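RECORD TYPE: inverse folding
INPUT: structure tokens
STRUCTURE:
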């Protein structure tokens, strides 16, 4: 398996914002590297934010797909853009946000492939699980979008990448500390055009977010 920096697209900047519905040619940023294989955790469902036994909400709200699209069109920031530089530990990539001041943010994950046909063939073989505090967010809360990026392939150089992403909108954050995870698992062997990965391979992105005002 290639090293952690291979083949996934890191967030650099927002290039295009659509005037109407998201289209396959739109470009969005993304942050992720390739961690080593791990197993999925057990998670429970989280839909409209979690509340304590006293009825106080303890997680941000998760918007609908249409709300995610509206947030994208209104140029809301990407969570990974706000985060400090990523760190790689024990097969995962972690991002820390010391004090989130934005009320509404976009939370993405994505993969890039060598061609559009390879993307279409292999995308169904990847299963992402998003969770906040160990509670799963249903995938029907996530919008999808395609983009083209030039990505740096070690030993090859810059290559055009055909990329696809999931993203959701998170808003109305309460004060507190939050752990957000994205674990994407290969459900079958797949090839992104530059390398082959075995079924069971997983990629992990962790976000540690503090909100203190």
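DESIGNED SEQUENCE:
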């Amino acid at each position: 398996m290639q090293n952690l920096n291979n083949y996934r697209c890191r967030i650099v900047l927002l290039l295009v914002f659509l005037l109407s519905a998201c289209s396959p040619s739109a470009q969005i940023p993304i942050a992720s590297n390739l961690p080593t294989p791990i197993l999925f955790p057990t998670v429970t469902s989280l839909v409209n934010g979690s509340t304590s036994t006293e009825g106080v909400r303890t997680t941000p709200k998760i918007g609908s797909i249409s709300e995610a699209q509206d947030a994208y069109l209104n140029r809301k920031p990407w969570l990974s853009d706000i985060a400090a530089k990523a760190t790689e530990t024990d097969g995962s990539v972690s991002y820390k946000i010391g004090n989130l001041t934005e009320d509404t943010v976009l939370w993405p994950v994505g993969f890039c492939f060598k061609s559009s046909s390879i993307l279409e063939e292999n995308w169904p073989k990847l299963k992402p699980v998003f969770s906040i505090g160990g509670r799963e967010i249903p995938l029907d809360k996530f919008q999808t979008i395609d983009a083209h990026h030039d990505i740096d392939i070690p030993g090859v150089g810059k290559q055009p990448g055909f990329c696809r992403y999931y993203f959701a909108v998170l808003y109305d954050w309460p004060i507190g500390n939050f752990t957000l995870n994205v674990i994407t698992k290969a459900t079958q062997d797949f090839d992104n055009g530059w390398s082959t990965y075995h079924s069971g391979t997983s990629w992990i992105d962790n976000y540690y977010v503090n909100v203190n005002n």
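NOTES: The mean pLDDT is 76.
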